[in-house]
Amino acid sequence: MFVGREHELVELQGALKVNRLVTLTGVAGVGKTRLARQLVDLGLVAAAEDACWADLWQLRDDGLLAALVADACSLSDHTPRMPVDVICEWIGDRELLLVLDSCEHVLPACRSLVKVLLAKCPQLRIVATSRELFHLDGEFVFVVQPLPCTTDAAELFLRRATESGHVPEPGDLNQVTELCTYLDGLPLALELAAGALRHCSIEDLLRRPRHELSRGEDEVRPLAPRRHDVLRTALGWSHELCTPAERLLWARLSIVHGHFDEAVAVALCSGGPLSAFDVGHALAGLVDKSVVTRRRGRCLLLDTVREYGRLWLAELGELDAMASTHASYFLTQARRADATWTSAEQTGWYRTIKEAHPDLCAALDHLLDHDVDAALELATLTGFYWTCCGHAHTAQLYLSRTLNACDRQGPMRQRAVWALGLTYLLQGNHVTGTHLARQCLESARVTGDATALLRAAYLQAMSDLLQGNPRPSLELLEHALRNADVHSADRGDEPARQAVMMCRMLRLFALTGLGELEESRRSAMALRAECVAMGEHWIRSYADYQMCVIALRAQDSELSLKYARSMLHAKQQIGDTFGIALGLDMLAAAFSANGNGLSAALASGAGQRLWDAVGHPQRGAPDVAPLREAGEERARRLVGAGTYESYRSEASHADPGEMLAWAAGGEPPL
């Protein structure tokens, strides 16, 4: 909810016209984040597609700061570069607004990052919210003040109370003003107080203990500490008015780093005096009291509220136990995701793991300190998802750390080495990736593990294909598939099924690369049919990709368009930026083959924006490059080079979401 601040918004808009770094500072709960959000939502500084928002409150420390900012910029880098370099290169000379929200707990690292970004990205503007300043040259400091007590503060309180169904009587308006004055017009304190009206009156609130706020007139205290106490008082009121179950749930929920829903709350927080039913009931009460914020069907503890709950969790002596419960829960989630990877649940798990990123990192950090075997398993099971969804650096970081920390040999370690090798190959580091692939092959041959051998063959074959060597790739894959324990896959052994299907998928690439198009087409259709029956999307999308390539080579333009769009649809279901970029290239080639040069230019431009985000030096397998180049040349001839480049440039700067909607069959946004 946003009330007032019209003058502040105008002032900030003006400040950002002449200053590239604006820091919104002020005490906790004063509304820094909401003011920055309103600035972005109203488009006062930049269009929606040119504004990036990084929620730094998710970070436990500064280790993943640059990776989180890269993710906020929609970067899905697949190169070995450091994240800071990736961000700088991607932004370049673009006019972009970057919001860094809640910088204070990672301030030194944030200061260094901001300094580099401002130096290397001349058109970048940064809005930061922080309780402390950066103290950088050129920093414009904007102190966010509380809301005026008799006007905006009272309006916010009344609107929040009305939403909660507890509207004060007309005769209470004087007390509303008194309460707003007492709470110093702090928005978060006002919302908490409004939520408390379910259990007490405004008069009751005014009579409650003031937590050391009553001081003699001659006692001089800085204003910020007083306002800090005001917020603590409002939090204390909310806490006192909570039922015992709500208090315990508040404390236990403080272990969660990101968004959550009721199912997560039940799984993490039930136990002891809290039954599953109690958790659901208590969660509703915390939402009603404005302790838990609900946004688009998901719940969240604001960082100040979380800090308060964490203090109580420590007081209860449950901090370590809850951290272990939290880590165990997310390890179980990763196991479930892996166990159903080739099913219709696949797309849901991609979304879940993407949204749970801060909690998965927190779980890994905890397990690295307490159970390195479990840490290795969690890093391995999430590594593939992260690598495919733009967190390759995070996957590589945790896989390396857990492999170094855990010296136990066995299937999980073999799989972790495989997952690490995959991150290197997809980043274009063929030397290290190939070294790890050969290590996997040697280990699998020693142990005789058929599933591990399939994965190792997949990794080595991918290395061969990316370097333009389809023949050894095909031979290795066919040998591994002949010797695979296919009966294990048929009996429901999910790891074996995954490995078999992935090798079959890569075999299509090798066949197509060798020109064996009919065999590749038959195999692709069979594999695709199985994926459709299972509800699987990742492997299916690459079967579609190969069908598109085969259709282009066979000059079947309509079929190429059908499979290019099918691939894009599947890739969008799982959020695979690299795959979407590849699909847009295929769509451009298909449009060109159909004689539609303008649409080819649009698809190519939309793809270029995503390739910039991916940062990959090579667009797919080398044998596909001639198809893309031939398509571009034909499209230029169809519409003229100038028109082609004009449309392509416009598409590369258009909103990616709108362009993808058009690519799926909608109207062009340009």
From TrEMBL:
Domain of life per record: Bacteria
Q: What is this protein called?
A: Regulator
Q: Which organism is it from?
A: Streptomyces roseolus
The major lineage groups are:
Bacteria, Bacillati, Actinomycetota, Actinomycetes, Kitasatosporales
